[in-house]
Amino acid sequence: NQLLVLCSVLVPDGFRNCQVNLCAFNSTELLDIQFISSYIYNKIEYVRFDSNVGKFIGYTEFGVKNAEQWNKDPSRIAMMRAQKETYCLHNIGVDYPNVLTKSVIPTVTLHSRTPPAGHHPSMLVCSVYDFYPKTINVGWLRDGQEVTSDVTTTDEMEDGDWYYQIHSTLEYTPRPGERISCRVEHASLKEPLIIDWDPSMPKSERNKLIIGASGMVLGLILSLAGYIYYKTKPRGQNQNLNRTRT
């Protein structure tokens, strides 16, 4: 289901009074649209109009009294029933082709993480960013076979700019020569996006190895220089001693 929401807020004397108009729909056809107008006071909904019911419904003592009074007003009921077409159908017709049918291809990154103590020795994280619409499926493959255990996936999280992100982790025990992949299915993709995990050493680790190797080479050079100095120093001292005696 898709939703269009408009919220109007009034704050008299510190008390928050809010009216929320909502359009729920499965298509752009009028029969597939539901208009709901909720009246909220201090975060409590006390009365609403539902186009599927065709009248106001009260949820608190104050709301029930208002619903009874408003339902007796034919002009008010007619106006609210018309909102399904004049408000919802109009806005859905504008937003659906321009926004709601658009899609944005996600960005996927795959990285390793140290797992919690007592768990599997390895953990991979598949992070999916900047995709739209919200619905997405993220899974794992080991040698082409779907993984159903030791997988944890977050809910889709809003970025606040129409985009979403989601993260999935896989805890596993490595097997020699295996191929582990993150699979992403989304409306923006013609076919599932599969990212293979590259177990080669990260750049930071390679830098550590280079620094360590350089240190070892430098140590060998210094050791060799010390050895040469040790071997040549006594010979020079003996020559000076012989010259002094002569």
UniProtKB/TrEMBL annotation:
Location(s) in or outside the cell: Membrane
SUPFAM superfamilies: Immunoglobulin, MHC antigen-recognition domain
PANTHER family the UniProt entry points to: HLA CLASS II HISTOCOMPATIBILITY ANTIGEN, DRB1 BETA CHAIN (PTHR19944:SF99), MHC CLASS II-RELATED (PTHR19944)
Species of provenance: Poecilia latipinna (sailfin molly)
An individual GO BP term: antigen processing and presentation
Gene3D superfamilies (UniProt xref): Class II Histocompatibility Antigen, M Beta Chain, Chain B, domain 1, Immunoglobulins
PROSITE patterns reported in the protein's UniProt record: IG_LIKE (PS50835)
Domain Ig-like: 106-196
Primary residence: membrane
Keywords assigned by UniProt, alphabetized: Disulfide bond, Glycoprotein, Membrane, Transmembrane, Transmembrane helix
Protein name: H-2 class II histocompatibility antigen, E-S beta chain-like
Ranges annotated as spanning the membrane: 209-230
GO cellular component: MHC class II protein complex
Its membrane topology: Single-pass type I membrane protein
Top-rank taxon, per record: Eukaryota
